[in-house]
Design a protein that fits this description.
The complex is a heterodimer. Chain A has ten helices and 15 strands. By secondary structure, chain A is of the alpha/beta class. Chain A is globular. Chain B is an alpha/beta fold. Chain B folds into two domains: about 5-125, NAD(P)-binding Rossmann-like Domain (Rossmann fold), CATH 3.40.50; about 130-290 and about 325-340, Dihydrodipicolinate Reductase, domain 2 (2-Layer Sandwich), CATH 3.30.360.10. In chain B, the strands form three sheets. Chain B has a seven-stranded mixed β-sheet. In chain B, α4 links the parallel β4 (about 70-75) and β5. The longest helix of chain B is centred in the C-terminal third of the chain and has 20 residues, at about 315-335. Classes of the chains: A alpha/beta, B alpha/beta. The interface between A and B is large, with 38 and 37 residues.
């Protein structure tokens, strides 16, 4: 089998269009169908037309197709369990957007269903496929950079309801559907990156997460966390919807890393240039291949019948850290995580 | 300009004293540096030679001089209170380097001496005179980013001092949490305009000098404030040798209507290219952390306060609050638990 056939379920997640493009461009996969589910079904239908693939109003029809190998799931996290259960029942592999779920129990159930059905489960965390971070990870693994001491991650974006266009991303500020706000939405990528770079499990977490920027927002908009890993590495994270409308990019992402031998200051893991319009300047990315990297990894893991680089267990661990951060913020205490 | 000048004695001719403060007096016509003192004779004489002041190796001889109106203390932290109190008891106004002291009771003794003697006491929280940060404070005051709610700060360097230097010693200097933590703490208070209620810190001893001394040289500090504001800082002396001077500081102030983002590297207007070292961001100032102009502004401000009989812009209580936060961070790093303020009940 040289190529696999992938479909997309739901455009509820703002990432969905990027995954459609990455799947269409993937050398080991073809985009063969799109299903609308929940919000932004119009966009899903439009994209199906654009890519010349069948559109399914019922995602179960897509999953029932014999020619389908796997799916990218871009629903709200509250629907992940239902959709993964259906995909697993049909023997389809799953690339499930983050967070894997809103509770650890649901995450465990998702992992169990995929394992029992023998399908691959991967959760895409972008930093793992960003070139500067891949370089740091390599330098740590080869020993060139010595021992990791700490990572300070900064991850700011704009309020997702400000994403231009007719799309509706309101669920991201609904605590019932999103499980949290800016800290969880944008921070969980970096939470995974901290754990991945540390190469160790989180044991102590202290955080402060709150709604301080947007009055009346029903979820948090910014948060900060200090996390200690079993091997002594310290992770710090500041994340949220802190970028005002005027900010020249949607994202402000920084990773500041100290080892016993080297320091790495990564100011935007993307590769960009400036474009000066009549009334505002914008940074444009000419290399943002992290989504391509994630899709390629998923396709290769399926083709090679191996565990994907980011497993369901990895996604569960990131969720556990994020949930501990919220717990710490409410209690004002350090939250200890135990690992069997 | 006032007709008379303030005669000053500088005590401590080490890194900050001789490198930061001493040269500033040449630019402050209202002040006259007439005496310099250091326990190390060569340092005192070198400073005297550079400034034309009289050299002393015993600070008591300097304090005996009745013509001296102000002393400038650039000595190790654990000596601040003792010398400041003695100086105030001889009726001299005191400008003292940060951190205010090594304990809260030492800081309180300084405040009490200032109250009893009626002289002026100011702690050199020099960031408040640094043009970068005064400019940012002006933007905040003008409401350019709304109400500031979150401050992220990084102060990082390779501390170039030998293992026996007092900065590494937990008793004499207090390590990076006390020495640099007071800068971060003061910046948080100054920008947020609130009082800290809880402090948490995770710290490490990375370099051999810190491990040998039993002090921390790398720390992450969180400060929660009574008005809901939060400050989050990385302070470090553990960055590799060769870590550029232009990479020292970072600051993000997130407000309800915008964000201020400052980094030394972004504001550095020149790259140099050499055969030997490749390319680098040059250092413009002797110290990575502070411009020479900031020391000059700080000293000038205190001298003007003496001449005009005004209260300094930074009160001893401000410096005490920053110290209390840093001490709380130290305690938190040692115990692993958040520490609530105030540290001692009944002490304001």
């Amino acid at each position: 089998m040289e190529r696999i056939n992938l479909g997309i379920i739901s455009y509820a997640h703002p990432h969905a269009p990027k995954y459609a493009a990455a799947i269409a461009a993937c050398p080991w996969a073809d985009l063969v169908g799109i299903a609308g589910l929940g919000v932004n079904a119009d966009l899903a239908a439009e994209e199906a037309k654009r890519y010349g693939v069948p559109y399914h109003t019922d995602y179960r029809q897509l999953l029932a197709r014999d020619d389908l190998t796997g799916v990218y799931v871009g629903t709200e996290p509250t629907r992940h369990l239902e959709v993964v259960a259906e995909a697993a029942a049909h023997g389809k592999h799953v690339l499930c957007d983050k967070p894997i779920a809103l509770t650890l129990e649901e995450a465990d159930e998702i992992i169990r269903l995929a394992r029992e059905a023998g399908v691959k489960l991967m959760v895409p965390f972008n930093p793992r496929f960003q070139l500067p971070l891949m370089k740091v990870k390599e330098a740590l693994e080869s020993g060139e950079a010595g021992e990791l001491i700490s990572v300070f991650a900064i991850k700011y974006g704009k309020l997702p309801t400000k994403i231009p266009g007719p799309t509706d991303y309101g669920w991201l500020i609904d605590p019932e559907q999103a499980g949290g706000g800016g800290f969880l939405d944008i921070g969980i990528h970096a939470v995974d990156a901290l754990r991945w770079l540390a190469g160790s499990e989180a044991v102590r977490i202290y955080a402060h997460v709150g709604n301080v920027l947007y009055e009346g927002l029903p979820v948090d908009d910014i948060g900060m966390m200090t996390v200690e890993f079993e091997n002594g590495v310290v992770g710090a994270l500041s994340a949220g919807w802190a970028n005002p409308d005027s900010y020249p990019t949607w994202l402000d992402v920084r990773f500041e890393i100290l080892t016993t031998k080297e320091a790495f200051l990564i100011d935007s893991p993307y590769h960009d240039y400036w474009c000066y319009g009549p009334d505002r300047a914008e940074r444009q990315y000419w290399w943002r291949r992290d989504v391509d990297g994630l899709v390629n990894e998923f396709a290769r893991a399926v083709l090679d019948n191996r565990e994907p680089a980011i497993s369901g267990e990895d996604a569960r661990a990131a969720l556990a850290i994020a949930l501990a951060a919220y717990k710490s913020s409410v209690s004002g205490k350090v939250i200890a995580l135990e690992h069997g | 300009m006032s007709e008379r000048t303030v005669r000053v004695g500088l005590i401590g001719c080490g890194n900050i004293g001789a490198g930061g403060h001493l040269p500033a007096y040449a630019h402050i016509p209202e002040a006259e540096l007439v005496a310099v003192c250091d326990g190390v004779e060569e340092l005192a004489h070198a400073a005297a030679e550079r400034s034309g002041a009289t050299a002393y190796t015993d600070y008591r001889r300097l304090l005996e001089r009745e013509d001296i109106e102000m002393v400038d203390l650039c000595i190790p932290t654990y000596l601040h209170a003792q010398l400041a109190v003695e100086a105030m008891q001889t009726g001299k106004h005191v400008l003292c380097e940060k951190p205010m002291a090594h304990t809260l009771s030492a800081a309180d003794a300084m405040i009490e001496a200032a109250r009893k003697t009626g002289v002026k006491l100011m702690i050199g929280q020099v960031r408040r005179f640094d043009h970068r940060y005064t400019s940012i404070r002006e933007q905040l005051d003008a409401g350019r980013v709304g109400r500031p709610v979150f401050v992220r700060r990084a102060e990082r360097q390779f501390l170039p001092f030998p293992p026996q230097a007092w900065q590494w010693d937990p008793k004499r200097g207090g390590g990076v949490i006390l020495d640099i933590g007071v800068h971060a703490a003061d910046l948080f208070r100054w920008f947020l305009g609130q009082e800290a209620v809880e402090v948490y810190a995770v710290a490490r001893s990375v370099r051999e000098a810190a491990r040998a001394a039993g002090s921390f040289d790398h720390a992450f500090i969180t400060c929660k404030f009574d008005g809901g504001g939060v400050g989050f800082a990385e302070t470090s002396w553990a960055y590799p040798q060769g870590f550029g001077g232009a990479l020292y500081a970072q600051l993000d102030v997130v407000g309800t209507e915008g964000k201020i983002q400052y980094a030394d590297k972004d504001t550095n207007p020149m790259l140099t290219y050499t055969t030997e070292r490749g390319h680098e961001l040059p250092r413009y100032f002797r110290f990575m952390s502070t411009t020479e102009y900031a020391f000059e502004e700080e000293i000038r401000h205190f001298v003007r306060c003496i001449l005009d009989d005004r209260e300094p812009a930074i009160s001893p209580q401000d410096a005490r609050a920053a110290l209390e936060m840093a001490l709380a961070a130290q305690r938190s790093a040692e115990t692993g638990e958040p520490v609530h303020l105030p540290l001692q009940k009944g002490v304001k």
